[in-house]
Specification:
There is one protein chain. The protein is an alpha+beta fold and about 300 residues long. The protein folds into two domains: about 190 residues, no CATH class; about 90 residues, no CATH class. It has six helices and seven strands. The strands form two sheets. The chain has a four-stranded mixed β-sheet, with no helix packed on it. Strands 1-2-5 form a three-stranded antiparallel β-sheet, with no helix packed on it.
């Protein structure tokens, strides 16, 4: 199954997300921060306006629109080799049908075909849906600090766990100590969460010349006195319990691909919730012109942050 985040998704939102002409600004989004978010998602093909210059930030999101938004944000696709059977209880000709199929193909469970496509999606359901979308791109270590919400007794099912995870990823935070889990989520609220999620994934997987970002892995190379090339992986992990282990190196297409695993903390131990820098090294012996990394478990590869010499 293909699991990659596509910041420049080619899919175009249908229904109330679709519009004919592209716009560089929205007249109904006055907050500068929100305007940046709305314009960025539009430019990336993730979320469109509802007219030539309107974003409708206060409009409630429907189940179908939420599914389409997640499919766009994370580039979810169906397998062209799979022959999907029509569901007689579902409108397989609706504009949102391809998005539902893509979501189900990628094991997105929060919203299913049995839900009313036009029904409003709650804030807690959208948060769970968003986390499922994030998880299709890989598994990410996070801190495990418990976030207290004043309306905690209003959460249902397992939604609180998903929201705690998103909070530890810094994708969302409670406003005035509340989350309002049963309120319908608005377009702007959904846009904020999706924008933060895409930024989180790009930050973790993107690398940096100044060193690894929190949760990300960077690789640098150096030549030893005896001529051997040493590759060092560095990462900033949520607490001292996490570790970094090199599983092996494979050489393909002119690349040295360092395969690694982020090891989990001992569940019987208590660790301080502080970001911890770790590193591990190996020697390269094959023929290559580029060094990349590949996390066992599906996280997007991170390219070497320094040119080979």
């Amino acid at each position: 199954m293909k699991k990659t985040v596509k910041a420049c998704a080619a899919l175009v939102m249908a229904g109330s997300f679709a519009f004919a002409a592209s716009a560089s600004a929205f007249s109904d989004v006055t907050d500068n921060g929100n305007a940046k978010i709305a314009e960025s998602l539009q430019q990336q093909g993730i979320m469109k306006g509802v007219g030539s210059d309107r974003f409708a930030p206060g409009l409630d999101l429907s189940n179908a629109q939420a599914i389409q938004l997640i499919v766009n944000a994370f580039g979810l696709e169906t397998d062209p080799g799979v022959d999907y059977k029509p569901d007689p209880k579902f409108n397989n000709d609706a504009w949102y049908a391809p998005a539902y199929e893509a979501a189900l193909h990628n094991q997105i469970k929060t919203v299913t075909k049995s839900d009313s496509a036009g029904g409003k999606i709650t804030r807690e359901s959208f948060a769970s849906l968003l986390l499922e979308g994030i998880n299709t791109t890989g598994q990410y270590p996070t801190t495990k600090m418990f976030i207290v919400f004043e309306d905690q007794d209003e959460f249902t099912g397992d939604h609180l766990n998903a929201i705690q995870t998103l909070g530890n990823m810094r994708i969302l935070s409670p406003a005035n100590g509340e989350f309002r889990p049963q309120d319908p989520i608005t377009r702007m609220e959904a846009a904020q969460m999706v924008y933060n999620a895409v930024e989180f994934i790009q930050k973790v997987n993107g690398g940096s010349d100044e060193g690894s970002e929190e949760g990300g892995v960077n690789v640098t190379t150096s030549t030893e006195a005896d001529g051997r090339v040493k590759a060092t992986l560095k990462a900033s992990l949520p607490n001292p319990g996490y570790g970094l282990k090199i599983d092996g190196v494979k050489y393909e297409g002119g690349k040295a691909i360092i395969q690694y695993t982020v090891t989990n903390p001992d569940p019987d131990m208590m660790y301080p919730q502080v970001i911890t820098d770790v590193e591990v090294s190996t020697y390269l012996t094959g023929t290559y012109t580029e060094v990349t990394t590949e996390q066992n478990g599906g996280t997007k590869p991170v390219t070497d942050t320094k040119s080979l010499k």
